[in-house]
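Honest question from a wet-lab person: if I give you the sequences of every part of a complex, can you actually get the arrangement of the whole thing, not just the pieces? Trying it with mine:
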Amino acid sequence: MSPFSEFLQHMANGLVLGFLYALVGIGLSMVYGILRMINFAHGEILMVGVFLALPVSAMGAPAWVVLLSGLAGATLIGFLVQWAIYRPLLKSPEVTLLVASLGVSLLLQNLVLMLTSPQPKRPDPAPFLDQPFRLGEIVLRNVDLAIVVVALAATLATHLFLKHTRHGRALRALAQDMSAARMMGVNVPFMVMICFLIGSALAGVAGVLIGYKYGHLTPLSGFVPGLKGFVAAVIGGIGSFPGAVVGGLILGLLETFLVGYLPDALAQYRDAYVFLVLILVLLVKPSGLFGKAETVKV
Amino acid sequence: MSVELNTPATPVLTGHPLRGSSLDAPVLELDQVSINFGGVRALDKLSLRLNAGEIRGLIGPNGSGKSTAFNVITGLYRPSSGDIRVAGRSILGLRADQVASRGVARTFQTLRLFQAMTVIENVMLGTHLGARPPSPASILLGLPDSRRFEAEVRRRSMDALDALQIADYAHDMAGNLPYGVQKRIDLARSLVANPSLLLLDEPAAGLTSTESHHLMELIRALHAERGFSLLLVEHDMQFVTDLCERITVIDFGKLLVEGSPAEVRDNHDVVVAYLGTGQLSASARAAEGATAQPLVLEVKDIAVRYGVVPALGNVSLNIAAGGITTIIGANGAGKTTLLSTVSGIVAAHQGQLLYRGNDITRLSCEQRVAQGIVMCPEGRRLFPEMTVQENLLLGAYKVTDKTAISEGLDRVYALFPRVAGRRKQLAGTLSGGEQQMVAIGRALMAAPTLLLLDEPSLGLAPNLVELIFETIAEIRKLGCSIMLVEQNAAMALEVADFGYVLDTGKVTLSGPASHLKERHDVIEAYLG
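Yes, you can. This is the full assembly:
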């Protein structure tokens, strides 16, 4: 394999990974944009979504049905968490929400651990998704292609919703000036719920795709994707929708290239590099690519 | 072992280098100071000289730059140009704590006490600003110098509490005390560092007239005893004129007038800055002799508090259908609170709101919008990263009929041809006047029956002010009732049918607008 096609191969792998991070990052970023809250339980919502989709897969359902059940499962759990825990705390300081989300994260992890087992699981193999997909010298699998297509479609749908619908406009307005949005008659708790549901749905989709790609799911599987989605959101500028998408892609590429070109001894610390990137971004440009610096009024 | 209190080894708790340094230099000099905030010039070549021991009032209408001036002097903001000197030495580029160590102390407009600490602990923190503490090692080991320091800090803090007659509260939790006492704790905290220059940001705001009179006596006594210089921002004009020897008036960040209280009160420019000019084309003027109209809104005995701070006390007033009712009064009189209570943004503590005969006191903000009570807030509050058109569409959030929305857009663009050509532009990039037009247009998109307009002319150039007022008269013709809060009282009374004068949360005067215009007490409500 020539160095150039090796480069192209890393690029393709990086983009696929990046789309997964973007799917996770969008929800985190949107919630932060409105509530100024980092939802640490986001990764666990993803995990619960996949675990709810596993029985569907075990019944022999086709992959797209499993994907939809992951979406539905994550949306349901997102609804419950928001309705039972975050909604009563909406008027509390942001830090209360943040701590509550840490609690929800641990609660969901342990609940799933208790109800299932720590043994890794995987969706029933879908032979079609595992078949190789060639593009010149680049070799991927059909599941990678599915990730790109599904992520693009989901991102586009979210974009159109935000840009062109009445509730989408209200969501953006809420992120810019919550009390002015109230003056326009926007029902704040309702819109916050909508925002959570969208984020959870995208996380559920990402979860099932991760399941098909890596096939190793434990109750702790949501943790790392959740953190990386957060890093993606920070790179792009937390609170910004396009930022989360671009941030996810950048992070995916960066991670793949670092792992691909560093000597083997160093390459195994892939997660460490991601957080090194996070620290660098926070030091150099804390507002990210698309974010705006926040000023504190005195 | 007995220790002498005045040994040189004692950590420095003496006065500031400034005291005793060259006596000729003024305590504070602002030399052509300018500062911009994203295109808005908050201070425009402002110069000011404060002599040692002087008590100076700094006044000006809302948004004229008073608090910005304080923030520049205390090092919170850095001016874009110009120089600031304390006792003859420039403080440009110093951090807030470094400025404080030059002997400058301040209080804040909104209280910034540590609620969960006792009064004495709050006040003792003030010494951090003024003295060099003993080394951490010494504190940890409890060496004599650190214990002496602690005792000295405590003694001085108690002195400050004593001077402000709140020593009895020393060990109470600051957050549990009445507002009037909290204001005095804040003042005590600024005094304990023994400042040579004290900046007070609205010390009397939120106080009853008895409390504020008492506070003034205390400040006067403290000044006589300690001889600091005082710069004071205050909206209670009585307070300022009684306390200050000289007053500096600023407007749009510029020096307007400087002189004795009497000179300032009689100055035409000052009256105009506070009351506006009030010249409108004949068509925009209120219809004379309007007959008694049915009521669209009855405000009955409404009281509002922010935490412990009373904002409105038992206000009752009526808004006639199809007319313009204006609420005027000095800053901090409770005008915005009144509008926010009607719109549902702020909850009333007691009282009742009747809208077209129905009780709406318990309805949420969005339910009121759906019924046609729509707020156009002070400072425009557009969504800056959305286009003009998107802002307008958000105004119509509660309107579901597509044709009604597109008719609404047409109507707004016809009313404001200037923004029609900018419908795809981001609202945050518009000029102040255009933003105000979009803000009014956005409120109109909700098809209001009662439009709440909060300070629509604030911060606009005179020709735009006229345009906005003419538009308000136009809007009335659409059959919408208007509740108008305005700083430009003359203009507001010109366009309105009826007016209420609000003073420290109470209605002090009401009547047909044409009568109020003639009343001398209207001017007094503003200028004391």
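Two things worth pointing out. Chain A has a mean pLDDT of 92. Chain A has one domain: 3-284.
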